[in-house]
Amino acid sequence: MKAYQDKDPLKVFAQTSAGRRRRNDDAYLVMRSVEGGVPLASYIDTGTLKRKFVPQWSHEHVRAVLIDGVGGHKDPVTAINAAIDRLLVIPPQDSPDAMAEVVMELHRWLFEAFATGSHLDPGFALLIADISLRSRMATMAHVGDCRAYRLDQNTAERLTHDHTPVEFKWRDGQISDDEYAVLTQEKQVIAQAMAYGPGRPFSGNEDEHGPGIDQRKAKIRIDVQGHAGVLHADAMRLNLARGEYLLLATDGLNYGSDQFLSIINGMGVSQSTVNELIRLAFSSGSEDNITLVLCG
Fold first, then answer.
1. If DSSP codes are grouped into helix, strand and coil, which group holds residue 64?
2. Which of 7 and 46 is assigned the larger pLDDT?
């Protein structure tokens, strides 16, 4: 099959860094056709950058995936590597419903393979975006607290909302808008994670259901754009117009969007830009692992 040729091809750059931590539990995956139309996957495997020929991948799509191991869990790397292996063979998705089902099915498989019922289970946050090169439409879904931003020359729009107890209580009408606005300014824990599911253990407490596998954790919540009653969508489809960028970031990126907007506008879409965004985060005091994928 002849590779799709775009006069203004989508550029994709990624980087991960342990920062001040001894171990890096982040990872990323980028799948796309490179020069010559060769479909290639670039990904982090146990902290090492690897590349793999993926002949089944669509020449007309780019896949960008961000993974952030949950702090306090035992080594999540085995589950993260398994997730990347599965994502390497899943075809691109062009609808929010289909993308949500891909992520939920991936979680169910990981849960059955790795869950032990302990609060030390190998959970991780995940954000996946499939971008059509023809239409420049991005189909995304996320679980946990990885963030996605759509940027242009003047604005940075945050597209995702962290999966915290406060977020879900607000979506379900259990707290008011005013309470939500106040509570979201406080330090939060995530309410669910891939390979683990929902539950209290992310606050550092023992699992309320005790030892053993709790099958209720086999299901995660992903609210889909366009469905009735959805206030904040976790699975969505959006246009990435010419001159717009998509930035995927783990929560270690700890400074305001106006700062990274200024850097991207000044430096353009490049590996140097991604490296500078990470450098500034660490110089601003971030102590977490940081991983970024910049598309535009």
1. strand
2. 46
